[in-house]
Design a protein that fits this description.
globular; alpha/beta; 9 helices; Rossmann fold; three-stranded antiparallel beta sheet; 303 residues
Length: 303
């Protein structure tokens, strides 16, 4: 079951997608849609099938089965005009180290009929002061901003961001998040892959979790995994050892523990499960029982 039915506002339609390499199943009957203006995160461990799925959507890899439409076109048949509507920011970049930021962006702008203004794009990615600096002299975070500038200069309707902040320090990551939010506010639809679960929680409207080629969950960030996965956990330690209990009333349980102990129990804490906690639970469950894949409705997913 798709999370959204196809409509005029659907940018990406994936139905029963499959990819095999001989006996190896890389993507197994995956279905999802992405709506216009949405930031959609595709999450999963290494080897789960994320990269294969993305490459099929980008038109770089042919599928074995299923149907895919990106901006209304089958990616296997997408021509130059279709590709010009996509922005792609890969994990590794191929900028020329000896040219300046402005020269590189100007070069890419020349590939499009109606590019964005070069100076506006450089300003949007926060590199105005570095416009005359050779790319080889930029920091890793600044070079990543160049990658985004090159990805959006052609006014893409859909922007692919593949692990965009790998190797960033915490401050650089947060600056980059602001850049992505500004692109979303400008109407750009974004498909994000990341191993940083806090990044997905900050940026995505919806997330899909894929494991062993199967879609195991899809939905808004604050609902995946269901209500049970988000029940707070109270942990404490006493003479019998470490304890934990899930409860909808964590403060009341903590108060009872304090009264019973006639003093504060050791290591008392209330943990509210994060997206990372939910994600790890979903992936772990999928590893233990591949047949358990489902959607947020609790019905079997297209997996």
């Amino acid at each position: 079951m798709n999370q959204h039915a196809p409509s005029s506002d659907t940018i990406v339609e994936v139905e029963n997608l499959g990819k095999r390499y001989g006996s190896l199943v890389a993507v197994d009957d995956v279905s999802f849609n992405i709506c216009r203006g949405e930031t959609f995160a595709l999450l999963g461990p290494n080897g789960a099938g994320k990269s294969t799925t993305i490459e099929i959507l980008e038109g770089y890899r042919d599928r074995t089965s299923g149907t895919v439409r990106v901006l209304g076109v089958d990616p296997q048949k997408g021509g130059v005009a279709w590709k010009a509507q996509l922005g792609i920011v890969l994990q590794s970049s191929a900028e020329a180290a000896q040219v300046t930021v402005r020269e590189q962006v100007e070069q890419f702008a020349a590939y499009y009929d109606h590019p964005r203004d070069v100076e506006e794009v450089i300003a949007a990615v926060g590199l105005t002061e570095k416009a005359k600096t050779r790319i080889g002299k930029l920091s890793g975070g600044q070079r990543r901003r160049v990658d985004v500038a090159l990805g959006v200069i052609g006014r893409p309707q859909l922007l692919f961001l593949d692990e965009p902040t790998t190797g960033f320090d915490p401050e650089a990551r947060r600056h980059f998040w602001e850049l992505i939010r500004s692109l979303k506010a400008d109407g750009t639809t974004i498909l994000l892959t990341t191993h940083y679960l806090d990044e997905a929680a900050q940026l995505a409207d919806r997330v899909a979790v894929i494991a062993a080629g199967k879609l195991v969950e899809i939905g808004p960030v604050d609902t995946i995994g269901g209500a049970e996965a988000r029940v707070p956990i109270v942990r404490w330690r006493d003479h019998a050892g470490l304890h934990e209990e899930r409860t909808l009333e964590p403060a009341a349980l903590a108060a009872r523990l304090l009264d019973a102990a006639a003093g504060e129990p050791r290591d008392l804490e209330i943990v509210r499960p994060s997206l990372e906690d939910v994600y790890l639970g979903l992936v772990g469950a999928a590893d233990r029982n591949p047949a358990s894949a489902r959607t947020t409705t609790g019905e079997p997913a297209h997996v």
